[in-house]
Design a protein that fits this description.
alpha/beta; six-stranded mixed β-sheet; binds D-malate
């Protein structure tokens, strides 16, 4: 587990990179694809997003932008997964740039397999891992501007906890992996009150100040969407 894009190595790649931004980019990406979006294309840079999306037919595209938790002026959407209903996104490509989540995706985009995971699609991600059995898996939390985040770490712990429960890997084999052991412990403590944990999280508090209570409530639900956002080409995720 790497807690932020900044802590993620750039000189090597894993067999599978799982990017997590529970609040809210990967929750939004999973929701768009579960609602019938054609694809999600992620950008760290807003100008690049605008330039690339200009080449797309207007009726087939949506632009989503978030900075500091708030919607970017002039974009159709911010980063609320609740806005990504089938009526809005079906058949369209979502071009998205967010403060941390899309930067984390960019950081690992050269890995052979890149997934976007959140609590809402955790079970589907775990099923994929158990079927494919990639040897080296990185879980990359998006954090907040270089800092650790509770919500991404608890999601990493939820994934690891579920893989352990369904595989032959014994907890003893985790010895020495402090990140995974602590993430699993965080999940074990909060698994029945994930929303409560979000209320303690710094970004949870930021979103509450922005009146995004319903987003927190939605993103705190585990295993509600059977969708696997998987990278098809650098920065472009589709549902498998
Ligand atoms: C991010 O990328 O930092 C987040 O998804 C922020 C948010 O919109 O909640």
């Amino acid at each position: 587990i790497y807690h932020t894009p900044e802590l993620t190595p750039t000189d090597k790649t894993p067999d599978c990179a799982i990017v997590v931004d529970v609040l809210r980019a990967t929750s939004t990406i999973a929701t768009v694809l579960a609602s019938g979006g054609e694809a999600v294309q992620a950008f760290s840079n807003l100008d690049q997003l605008i330039a690339v999306s200009e080449n797309w037919p207007p009726e087939k595209r949506l632009r989503a932008g978030e900075r500091g938790g708030a919607k970017v002026t002039g974009f159709e959407l911010g980063n609320s997964p609740l806005d990504c209903t089938p009526e809005v996104v079906k058949g369209r490509r979502l071009f998205i740039s967010t403060t941390n989540g899309t930067r984390a995706l960019q950081r690992v985009q050269d890995s052979p397999i890149v997934l976007a995971a959140a609590l809402i699609n955790r079970a589907t991600v775990v099923k994929f891992l158990l079927e494919k059995q990639p040897e080296i898996v990185w879980i990359v939390g998006s954090g907040w501007e270089g800092s650790f985040s509770l919500e991404d770490t608890v999601c990493a712990g939820a994934i690891a906890h579920s893989v352990l429960a369904q595989s032959q890997i014994s907890p003893a084999e985790l010895a020495g992996n402090d990140e995974v052991i602590s993430a699993i412990a965080l999940y074990a403590q909060w698994q029945n009150d994930l929303l409560g944990l979000f209320h303690h999280a710094s970004h949870g508090q930021r979103l509450l100040r922005l009146e995004s209570h319903e987003d927190l409530r939605y993103c705190a639900q585990a295993d509600i969407l059977d969708v696997l956002p998987i990278q098809q080409e650098p920065g472009v995720l589709k549902s498998q």
